[in-house]
Write a structure and sequence with these properties.
Layout lengths: L1 H8 L21 H22 L1 H15 L5 E4 L10 H14 L13 H15 L1 E8 L8 E6 L18 E3 L2 E3 L5 E7 L9 E4 L2 E7 L3 E5 L17 H23 L2 E5 L30 E5 L8 H16 L4 H5 L7 H40 L4 E2 L2 E2 L5 H4 L2 E4 L8 H13 L5 H7 L4 H17 L4 H7 L3 E2 L17 E2 L4
Antiparallel strand pairs: 1-14, 2-3, 2-9, 4-5, 5-6, 6-8, 7-8, 10-11, 12-13, 15-16
Helix pairs in contact: 2-3, 3-5, 3-9, 6-7
InterPro entries: Phage_lambda_portal
Organism: Pacificitalea manganoxidans
Protein name: Phage portal protein
Length: about 500
Amino acid sequence: MPGVGRALARLYDAAKSDRLTGNWGTQPLTADEVVRRNLRSLVARSREQAANNDYARRFLKMCRQNIVGPRGVLLQAQAKDPGGALDTLANDAIEAAWSEWCRPGNCDVTGRQSLRAIQAQAVVSMARDGEYMIRLVTGTAAGDWGLALQVLDPQRCPVDYDVKKLRGGGFIRHGIEFNAWGRPVAYHFTTASAEDDDDAYLRQGRAFVRIPADQIVHGFEPEMTGQKRGLPWMATALWRMQMLGGFEKAALVNARASAAKGGWFQWKEGFGPDHDEEDGDLEMEVSPGIWQELPEGVEAVANDPQYPSGEFAMFHKAMLRGMASGMNVTYVNLANDLEGVNFSSIRQGTLDEREHWKEMQEGLIEQLLAPIFEAWLRRALLKGRIVVNGKPLRAERLEKYRAVVWQPRRWDWIDPNADVKAAVTSKNNLLASPSQIIRDRGQDPETIWREIGRDIAAMRGAGIDDRFIEIALGMKVAPQGEGEGGDEGAAPGSRKPPED
């Protein structure tokens, strides 16, 4: 049918090529091409905005606070005995040793940062640069634990360093060496000169150091199939950031000029100095509320710019909303603007944003913390640094001790009264366990229960009656003597199930 071809051609308007879409690309690019063409300029502009743009700095702070938080992602060891019960002694020892290693002076090869600070640095690097690279340092340089971390600048692994074919079928793409199946084998970093490092080599006029891939923790958020390097999270918002920043500066300069109320003098026809006179310029010092008499034939012409006017705020808000959408955060939080919001809208927006943060937290656990823990555990066991009752844990039980869960930060309830009631109802209806509710609060159930046990023991040691202890723990306690009524046989001080 002759009209079918034309009908199919019109099926998707976005596929049309006409005068309105002439500069819209029609050739799809591979992930490697996108990264090679854009990564360097995006990182440069993202770093510039992070240094100079208030909203870029706000976004990076939001990432750091919500993904890492004040305590970082916490480890909960879950090693079990053959019977399936938790090995409490071993788990406590693993958590204590891990906590010790995470302190400044142990986990960082420079001795300055804690693991929480390194987590925060990795998150900021992903948001600003698109990726992070951390080297696992072993040997004498790693200190007593045999492992330390070195945070590297990803730009030292040049995106334009490619080698199409290596022996064995491998290749180098974006500074990373892969085997024939695309598995990373090594990372190639630039160094000051080949003379400064015995392991350095020269290629394409640059000095490189080859580091095996099992020594590099490389994290980024892939967006395309086959993507090998990360792109800044602020990538789509950078153009608006730059334009909005220029718009704000222009409006600010104009507002200052308008506030100054400057102007110029104009001579009427037949008055004024000759063109060749040197002292023909008039100057007048302006003071608030004072008018001065002008020479005959002179009139003042005011320069009174009226911008910024009423549309400034609306335009500014529209730009910020676009930026917030590109960075997967709410406009309210990015702009610190609570004007015009209500409880329902801010609650829904906050819940949606938190789901995004949870997804980013899982990525941080999978790409950063899990491989670091695996490397640490092997060396800590071999060095005998994890001790129970004076004896080190046995290294041959590595598989048992690998069982851990990670507890990232969580947030306070938006409506505490309603949310607590909902959590209690879910628990009473077997829709959630007490452990799950505690984890949703960002805490370790084992730690909470032990604290409660210590509190009860301390109160009993102080001579406090069990009845008052139960009240302090929020239990429903029957009044004294209630057993003589309709609740026969109930002992004084007996507990009632909590009311919904």
